[in-house]
Q: What sequence folds into this?
């Protein structure tokens, strides 16, 4: 819609900007739901205790609720960002030359389907594994592994 329909009403965006905007709008909805669920998973008693200590609602949210919710949302947020890496391939539909589109072009030029497919998969893996390790370290640092056992 962003790339093909907005120009019909006079708003033309470059393909890369349309791709970024489209992915941002799509993933912001998922991220908002993850954070909402994380905040709502904190027992109501935590908020009540903070308010009983004289904290304002904003201070209770910032100092009590959000730190606990952050621990809960790290794994699903990480999964979403890894999925975002993979979903960039959808952008090839609007002429953005991303990794999967480059694979397709090179495959058509050279005929090296298996080699290029393996290379593409390895590149996606190389981009995803570091994020996975960062998330694992954050989980360990925040004590999520201990609580799950």
A:
């Amino acid at each position: 819609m962003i790339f093909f329909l907005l120009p019909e009403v006079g708003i033309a965006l470059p393909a890369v900007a349309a791709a970024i905007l489209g992915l941002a709008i799509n993933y912001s909805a998922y991220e908002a739901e993850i954070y909402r669920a994380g905040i709502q998973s904190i027992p109501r008693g935590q908020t009540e205790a903070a308010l009983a200590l004289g904290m304002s609602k904003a201070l209770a949210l910032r100092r009590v609720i959000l730190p606990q919710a952050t621990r809960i949302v790290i794994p699903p947020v990480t999964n979403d960002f890894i999925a975002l890496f993979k979903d960039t391939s959808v952008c090839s539909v609007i002429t953005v030359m991303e990794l999967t589109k480059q694979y397709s072009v090179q495959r058509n030029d050279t005929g090296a389907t298996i080699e290029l497919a393996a290379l593409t998969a390895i590149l996606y893996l190389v981009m995803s594994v570091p994020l996975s390790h960062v998330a694992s370290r954050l989980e360990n640092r925040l004590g999520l592994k201990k609580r799950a056992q």
In short: The chain has six helices and no strands. The mean pLDDT is 87. The helical segments are 15-40, 44-52, 57-87, 99-110, 113-141, 144-148.
